[in-house]
Write a structure and sequence with these properties.
It is built from five helices and three strands. By secondary structure, the chain is mainly α. The chain has a single domain, classed as dinb family like domain (Four Helix Bundle (Hemerythrin (Met), subunit A), Up-down Bundle), CATH 1.20.120.
């Protein structure tokens, strides 16, 4: 198997988990947050929906300097659940196509992520993709799960059963 084929297995699982979680985000709690330091639910949901676009940037660009990035920031305004799911579909489709066409050589090259002179990461593109796309997406999808629980909304079974659902592989 190629590196891309291995990453695609995880990609499809994580996008499915994110979709199942976003399908439960209520449309009347955009500004709800569980703590003053927490991101509002609507913004968090849109961050999850658009994170695959950052994965696309990792795959397509030679690096990224956030101080001078030419890539647009994704809009994080939650309007409707349907729109969040549409954004997830569009961003993940673009990312998946890029990942599917990435060679082992491309995925093995170093990818530098910085903010001006401050280097945040300088690792192989495949590792940058796993950490900054997958791990980041998993982290925030789990946060949405906590928000759902705190609002008495059933939490989907993602990696095993939840208190609300049985899990099936």
């Amino acid at each position: 198997m190629t590196i891309a084929e291995i990453l695609l297995q995880d990609f499809d699982t994580e996008i499915s988990n994110t979709r199942r979680t976003l399908e439960r985000v209520p449309e009347n709690k955009n500004n709800w947050k569980c703590h003053d330091k927490s991101m509002p639910l609507g913004r968090l949901a849109m961050h999850c929906a658009t994170l695959p676009m950052f994965g696309y940037y990792i795959l397509e660009d030679d690096g990224m300097d956030m101080a001078t990035s030419k890539r647009p920031h994704m809009a994080l305004e939650f309007t409707t659940r349907e729109n969040a799911l549409k954004q997830l579909e569009e961003c993940s489709a673009k990312c998946r196509a890029s990942l599917a066409s990435a060679s082992d050589e491309r995925l093995s090259t170093l990818w530098k992520f910085s903010y001006g002179e401050q280097v945040i990461s300088h690792k192989p593109r495949s590792q940058s993709f796993r950490e900054m796309c997958f791990d980041h997406l998993i982290h925030h999808t789990a946060q949405v799960g906590v928000y759902l629980r705190l609002n008495d909304i059933p939490v989907p079974a993602l990696y095993g059963p939840s208190a609300d659902e049985q899990w099936s592989a």
